Amino acid sequence: MLVRLVYASRASRELSPQDLQDILRRSRDHNPAEGITGLLWYNDGVFIQVLEGGRDPVNARYKRIVMDNRHDAPILLTYQEISERRYAGWSMGQVNLHRLNPGLLLKYGETQKLDPYRMSGAMLTALFDELVSSGAIECA
Amino acid sequence: MLVRLVYASRASRELSPQDLQDILRRSRDHNPAEGITGLLWYNDGVFIQVLEGGRDPVNARYKRIVMDNRHDAPILLTYQEISERRYAGWSMGQVNLHRLNPGLLLKYGETQKLDPYRMSGAMLTALFDELVSSGAIECA
Amino acid sequence: MLVRLVYASRASRELSPQDLQDILRRSRDHNPAEGITGLLWYNDGVFIQVLEGGRDPVNARYKRIVMDNRHDAPILLTYQEISERRYAGWSMGQVNLHRLNPGLLLKYGETQKLDPYRMSGAMLTALFDELVSSGAIECA
Amino acid sequence: MLVRLVYASRASRELSPQDLQDILRRSRDHNPAEGITGLLWYNDGVFIQVLEGGRDPVNARYKRIVMDNRHDAPILLTYQEISERRYAGWSMGQVNLHRLNPGLLLKYGETQKLDPYRMSGAMLTALFDELVSSGAIECA
Amino acid sequence: MLVRLVYASRASRELSPQDLQDILRRSRDHNPAEGITGLLWYNDGVFIQVLEGGRDPVNARYKRIVMDNRHDAPILLTYQEISERRYAGWSMGQVNLHRLNPGLLLKYGETQKLDPYRMSGAMLTALFDELVSSGAIECA
Amino acid sequence: MLVRLVYASRASRELSPQDLQDILRRSRDHNPAEGITGLLWYNDGVFIQVLEGGRDPVNARYKRIVMDNRHDAPILLTYQEISERRYAGWSMGQVNLHRLNPGLLLKYGETQKLDPYRMSGAMLTALFDELVSSGAIECA
Amino acid sequence: MLVRLVYASRASRELSPQDLQDILRRSRDHNPAEGITGLLWYNDGVFIQVLEGGRDPVNARYKRIVMDNRHDAPILLTYQEISERRYAGWSMGQVNLHRLNPGLLLKYGETQKLDPYRMSGAMLTALFDELVSSGAIECA
Amino acid sequence: MLVRLVYASRASRELSPQDLQDILRRSRDHNPAEGITGLLWYNDGVFIQVLEGGRDPVNARYKRIVMDNRHDAPILLTYQEISERRYAGWSMGQVNLHRLNPGLLLKYGETQKLDPYRMSGAMLTALFDELVSSGAIECA
Amino acid sequence: MLVRLVYASRASRELSPQDLQDILRRSRDHNPAEGITGLLWYNDGVFIQVLEGGRDPVNARYKRIVMDNRHDAPILLTYQEISERRYAGWSMGQVNLHRLNPGLLLKYGETQKLDPYRMSGAMLTALFDELVSSGAIECA
Amino acid sequence: MLVRLVYASRASRELSPQDLQDILRRSRDHNPAEGITGLLWYNDGVFIQVLEGGRDPVNARYKRIVMDNRHDAPILLTYQEISERRYAGWSMGQVNLHRLNPGLLLKYGETQKLDPYRMSGAMLTALFDELVSSGAIECA
Ligand SMILES: Cc1cc2nc3c(=O)[nH]c(=O)nc-3n(C[C@H](O)[C@H](O)[C@H](O)COP(=O)(O)O)c2cc1C
Ligand SMILES: Cc1cc2nc3c(=O)[nH]c(=O)nc-3n(C[C@H](O)[C@H](O)[C@H](O)COP(=O)(O)O)c2cc1C
Ligand SMILES: Cc1cc2nc3c(=O)[nH]c(=O)nc-3n(C[C@H](O)[C@H](O)[C@H](O)COP(=O)(O)O)c2cc1C
Ligand SMILES: Cc1cc2nc3c(=O)[nH]c(=O)nc-3n(C[C@H](O)[C@H](O)[C@H](O)COP(=O)(O)O)c2cc1C
Ligand SMILES: Cc1cc2nc3c(=O)[nH]c(=O)nc-3n(C[C@H](O)[C@H](O)[C@H](O)COP(=O)(O)O)c2cc1C
Ligand SMILES: Cc1cc2nc3c(=O)[nH]c(=O)nc-3n(C[C@H](O)[C@H](O)[C@H](O)COP(=O)(O)O)c2cc1C
Ligand SMILES: Cc1cc2nc3c(=O)[nH]c(=O)nc-3n(C[C@H](O)[C@H](O)[C@H](O)COP(=O)(O)O)c2cc1C
Ligand SMILES: Cc1cc2nc3c(=O)[nH]c(=O)nc-3n(C[C@H](O)[C@H](O)[C@H](O)COP(=O)(O)O)c2cc1C
Ligand SMILES: Cc1cc2nc3c(=O)[nH]c(=O)nc-3n(C[C@H](O)[C@H](O)[C@H](O)COP(=O)(O)O)c2cc1C
Ligand SMILES: Cc1cc2nc3c(=O)[nH]c(=O)nc-3n(C[C@H](O)[C@H](O)[C@H](O)COP(=O)(O)O)c2cc1C
To answer: PROSITE patterns given for it (chains A, B, C, D, E, F, G, H, I, J) (predicted)?
Structure first.
């Protein structure tokens, strides 16, 4: 059974680019062996992550991530059984904020600043689809 | 929660181009801070305006606009919770009447003169969609 | 409220091209002021006419037309409240029979001769849509 | 081909109960031979009538009724090809206003007084369906 | 054109039962003449009101209500063109809080205390439908 | 925003009835204050739990539950934004296994023994709906 | 493959009750062996018959019936592949005209006299369904 | 009323090309006057024919064809009331077997040899649509 | 994953009631341990069997059954992944032919004798549903 | 009746390219005469095969294949009555693993290694459709 899980969380402290690279490197080390793929967004102290893969490994990894003290207050945004992955090409793709069309956040949010805690799962899914199709994801 | 609100009103007196520019300038000053976007149509003493944004700021602004004595008899045409904005690119776009195909008004109305008080919200929405797609909106 | 009305009738006597031009000229004089648009087909002693516009003026004009003794036995084919006109560009367009693909009538009718008294309103609507899209309507 | 036609009109002068009985008697004399069935509403100077039957006889009769000078300004409310009648049991049923639940008019109208000139055909159809199902029709 | 408008607001000060009766009495005086019907909920400093009727009178009344300083921060919850009223029987019905099943609020809300500012229009509509069908509305 | 979350897990050791009562008592102490409602199933070393409530408190509580060492390997079965709760009446209802029709498990599972790790979220939801409607839930 | 075939025809001469009994007796002799079931209507010189069964035997029998000189001008009304019969209980049921509600014909036809040559297959199907459900079919 | 009728039959004896030309010539002589259009397939002793036109002439012609002793065992494949013809351009088009893609028969049939007696009407319709769109029909 | 498999076969020789009881007894011995449930029909030398359960055990058992020389020419009628069983109550229910309404077979078949080799899977499914709901299944 | 059957199995021993060619050669010898078409996948000890054709020959061939001791534990993945074949062009096409995009397996599976025993029939169907459309099938 394949699933897709999307959550948001708040960084527990200011993250340097180096800190973020650490998380991504670690993810790209672990995920292929577990058949996990996905995307990671980080900006202004907020993470949004998509995890896809078998139901058991995604849950096991999510449990680890939830306990990671580099962030707090994770909230699930969506979780579904899926029949095919959407991000099969990324062991953990990174959203490149410099490639973002600035109007895109306003299209889905109440202000120019993304606040996943005020958005429904469906709206975040629509935003992520536009990120992928507009080429804003970096492979490694 | 994002909403879209469309209303019509009657100017309480003849408006000069200058008067209209004042309203638009004011709107473009206020709206970005409140995350509000939209369109304004003015012709022959009739206003039609679309306001998009967070539910609270749109309602607060609409309350101010309703009390503005430059127009009377505002009537709501449509009001909906939306999952994405349609006019995210305009802090307050202006419909340029010189770019209008004259047959367009006849397509949706009983005569060549637009009378929003006799039209349903759905027909006005269709008309506004044609305005945008035919390039009749001015940015600033 | 916008409506579209389609009817058919039989000319009460043989019509000359001049007679037909009189009807069209009269229609193009009256209809713009009343916000009425439409099409007129005449062939072999049969009229089919589409009238679009506000509900009241279309009914008022139809009452006059029904009483016109140049034709008899008018039958309504369709009548609907519509949200947009289909023939907004013609104050009264004329179907040019020389531009008709001869197979078109057979496509919708039992024989090559159009007999609206044996056809449903839906089939006549489909035929008229093909007339417009194949450029068989003359503007004036 | 069966059709159902609904129209409204304004009595050209105050009608006495006797006048109304004359119209109904005449209708019940003519309609059976032509296969026409339907309902008639009269109140406060406004008629609403439903006519069902073959397409030709309904149109022929409607042409006569439109020219009757006991009323003016008839407007078609709906006209459809139908696959079965709804009022097959009444050669011309009369709406008994004393059996009307007074709230019924408010349910579909803007005020307690029925004004068909401001109502869509669909709303009038819904109102007539409630009249039949609440037993407000008199047989003869 | 009939519309239904639902809004919520916060009382600007503590309201006594007498204050509430004043608002209701006033509403029942005005609304019948304007063809307005609806419901009013008041509890814990929060109003929720449904207004149904013609588009023009509902908008005119809503403009007055918005400017009433007995409450602040009105937000529209839903606004629709409707083909029939749902509350035709109440010139302004009052929700009787003593007849409320206490679990009802939890069914639609995040806690036992109703907070319309955190609820979508659709959820409030569902709640109001249950209020009516469970007999929690008082007539006068 | 209301959500419903369903997960399964394996007890890390044999649980006595007393152990289970401890979990339930604790749940019924905490959940009302957080607006959380739901059901708990325990049998043969397997837990299945439904949690309903506001998105933030459900996620916060789920994070605590996942870290509880009385069980391991929690897997999310379903997670959805909902517009109304299904179990508003239970701060934490307990499935009474003695009231279970023994054929019920076979209806949805491959064998008579429930193994949520081999079942889709949709099938578990259907099973839980039958539990509620067949009266197999104990209130406290 | 099961099919259902409905046709109408005109008796070539006046039929006595005896003539009709002959046709029915013959049908009830032949049809069971071929797995054919159905209904026969006769009135005023018009036959309507429904034949159900395997595609080959129904076609073979229909070919014989078409060539029977007791009737002329057979026209197919409907013909469909079906997944179950509707008249499995009648080797050839007869419509008993004395049990017919006289309004039934008017409900589907333009006049009180059934004329299948002017009716669509769908309307005749609806009429036959009412015949069966109103108990107007005789078994033998 | 327009109908489309498709049937299959078996040639009662080996047909020469000349025999087939006779049938086609005869068809092209008769059909235009009756407003009939269609297609004829002949191969390996099997005919499949589509006839379109008014309900009465199609039935009259089909009765003649069924009685023609050049073929036996005709079975109806489909018969429908249609709102437009599909083969309006052919008084009787002939399927040119040399233009057939040999895989086409396998796509719809159990073997490479077309056996309409084992195929449903819907599959034959799909096959004929591919014949037309792949240009395998000869005009005369 | 649960599946439902339906097949038909021909008994390779005349079966005595004793032979049939042997098959059923054997089935009821094996099936519970493998979580298999279903129905068996036997009449006139034809078997039809429904098998429900986990995908692996159903396939394993079907492989054994196919090789059983008490029958030949098994053909699969339907095979689906299901979300719930329909025959959870029968380890292998037997269709009691004496409780069968004789018209039932005619309803779905071309003749009174059931020939699954000429029926689609969907029609057999409909027949089996009627068998269950009409109480024609014996438990053991 | 056409059907499509998909199954998976495990090779009972390591297969050499020669062994595989034997199976394919044998298939291409037998299948055309029986009207069977399809695809065969072999990798890492796992077979997946699609068989299309008449219901009887596909079942007869599948019975033979199931008993072939070059593989074990065949499980049906899907089986359907179809109205047209998808692989009419291949008497038995072979999936060329060297032409496979390596990400394709991850898109539908939990890991990079295809395990049909853990996948639903629908997901395997989607994977095979991508194989065909990406040109990964070899003809002979
Ligand atoms: C926002 C965020 C996202 C993370 N994503 C992943 C991930 O996709 N894969 C992963 O293995 N670790 C991820 N981690 C790191 C995990 O929290 C944890 O450190 C890691 O799974 C530890 O794995 P290990 O103990 O097995 O080495 C993430 C951490 C954070 C803060
Ligand atoms: C037709 C019309 C449209 C208006 N639109 C806007 C608007 O989009 N945004 C805005 O800030 N003010 C708009 N205004 C002006 C407001 O009515 C009001 O003057 C303004 O909100 C005052 O804001 P302030 O008191 O906060 O400066 C509009 C006025 C009119 C007459
Ligand atoms: C077939 C037919 C179509 C007509 N169409 C129109 C029309 O579209 N508009 C119009 O004004 N008159 C039309 N007429 C003419 C009217 O019947 C009538 O002569 C005219 O409305 C008279 O208008 P007046 O008395 O206001 O001048 C038509 C007449 C015929 C016979
Ligand atoms: C509101 C109204 C409704 C009428 N309905 C009918 C009717 O249903 N049938 C009818 O024959 N006449 C009806 N009439 C009367 C006709 O207008 C007209 O007088 C009648 O058809 C004359 O028929 P005759 O000239 O054939 O006698 C109605 C008249 C009015 C004012
Ligand atoms: C929550 C609330 C609801 C109200 N509802 C109504 C109402 O339904 N109808 C009404 O006439 N006035 C209502 N009012 C009172 C209006 O705000 C206002 O006082 C009234 O329309 C004044 O009308 P008048 O100036 O025409 O007398 C309401 C006031 C409040 C605070
Ligand atoms: C299967 C299971 C279900 C539980 N469900 C709940 C629950 O619904 N609510 C709750 O407060 N604690 C629940 N708990 C207990 C929590 O894991 C944890 O002990 C508790 O939330 C501690 O809360 P506290 O530290 O705030 O006292 C559950 C534990 C288990 C093992
Ligand atoms: C209106 C009509 C309906 C008939 N229906 C049937 C029928 O259902 N079955 C039948 O066997 N014959 C029916 N017949 C009789 C056939 O036309 C024909 O006489 C009969 O099939 C001769 O069969 P035989 O030559 O095999 O004896 C019908 C005849 C008519 C005129
Ligand atoms: C397979 C087949 C198809 C035929 N198609 C037609 C046709 O489309 N039109 C036609 O008039 N005759 C067609 N015929 C010939 C008729 O069976 C019959 O000979 C012809 O309608 C005689 O018409 P007539 O007696 O009016 O001259 C066809 C014959 C066969 C065997
Ligand atoms: C028509 C038919 C249906 C059968 N159904 C079952 C069945 O449902 N379960 C079963 O175990 N055996 C069934 N059998 C018997 C099997 O073919 C086979 O004899 C049995 O599975 C042998 O099992 P064993 O070798 O494991 O004892 C059936 C046999 C026939 C002929
Ligand atoms: C994975 C697999 C797929 C096969 N596919 C086919 C096939 O498509 N057609 C075929 O005739 N034999 C196929 N075979 C071979 C059959 O199992 C069997 O050997 C063959 O049908 C024997 O046929 P025969 O005894 O009629 O010669 C396949 C074998 C295997 C192991």
So the answer is: BLUF
Rg (CA), chain A: 14
- Tell me G102's DSSP state: T
CA–CA min distance A77, chain B (Å): 15
pLDDT 10s digits, J86-138: 999 899 999 988 877 777 889 999 998 889 999 999 999 999 999 888 888 88
Nearest alpha carbon to residue B137 among B49, B41, B43: B41
Between CA G28 and CA G140 the distance in angstroms is 8
Pairing of strands C93-95, C37-43: parallel
Return the CATH fold of F2-138. Alpha-Beta Plaits (3.30.70)
Q: Which two tokens stand for residue G32?
A: 């069971």
| CA–CA dist D111, B8 (Å, integer) | 23
What does the angle CA A31 – CA A94 – CA A19 come to, to the nearest 5 degrees?
85
Proximal ligand: closest to the CA of I46? 9
Instruction: Search chain H and give the residue with CA nearest C113.
Output: H35
Output the six-digit token pair for E90: 């109440």
J14-31 average pLDDT score: 94
d(CA A3, CA A8): 17
- In the predicted model, is pLDDT for residue H139 greater than 80? no
- The terminus-to-terminus CA distance of chain A in angstroms comes to 27
> Smallest CA–CA separation between F12 and chain A, in Å?
16
pLDDT in tens, A30-88: 999 999 999 999 998 999 999 999 999 999 999 999 999 999 999 999 999 999 999 99
- Residue H43 β-bridge partners: H46
Is J69:J124 a contact under the CB 8 Å cutoff? Answer: no
Structural Rg of chain B based on CA atoms: 14
Nearest-by-CA chain D residue for E32: D111
DSSP state of G3: E
Identify all chain J residues contacting H78, using CB atoms and an 8 Å cutoff.
none
φ and ψ of F118, to 5 deg: -110, 10
Q: What is the rounded CA–CA span in Å between residue G114 and residue G11? A: 14
Chain pair B-C, CB pairs under 8 angstroms: 30
Contact G70, H67 (CB under 8 A): no
Closest Cβ–Cβ partner in H59, H60, H75 for G59: H75
Helices marked H in chain E — which ranges? 17-34, 55-67, 103-108, 121-133
Q: Report the DSSP pairing between strands H93-95 and H37-43.
A: parallel
For the record, the structure tokens of C39 come out as 């099409």
Contact yes or no for A106 and B84 at CB 8 A: no
CB-based contact, I112 to chain G, within 8 Å: yes
> What is the SS3 assignment for A133?
helix
Q: Which two tokens stand for residue C125?
A: 């609507």
The Cα–Cα gap between E70 and E91 comes to 21
The C-alpha atoms of residue C79 and residue D58 are separated, in whole angstroms, by 14
Sign of CA dihedral A13, A17, A20, A21: negative
Q: Any bridge partners for residue A40, and if so which?
A: A49, A94
Cα-based angle H79, H83, H84 (whole degrees, multiple of 5):
95
User: Contact G87/G41 with Cβ under 8 angstroms?
Assistant: no
Compute CA distances D71 → C5, D10, D45, whole Å. Answer: 22, 5, 9
- Find all residues with CB under 8 Å of H23, minimum gap 6, and list them: H40, H70
Contact D30, D83 (CB under 8 A): no
Distances (CA, A) of D102 to D41, D73, D106, H97, J92: 15, 27, 8, 73, 76
pTM, 2 dp = 0.89
Q: Give the residue from H28, H4, H7 showing the smallest Cα distance to H138.
A: H28
Q: Which of G20, G39, G21 lies closest to G31, judged by CA?
A: G39
Instruction: Tell me if chain A has a CB within 8 Å of the CB of F33.
Output: no
Tell me if chain C has a CB within 8 Å of the CB of B101. no
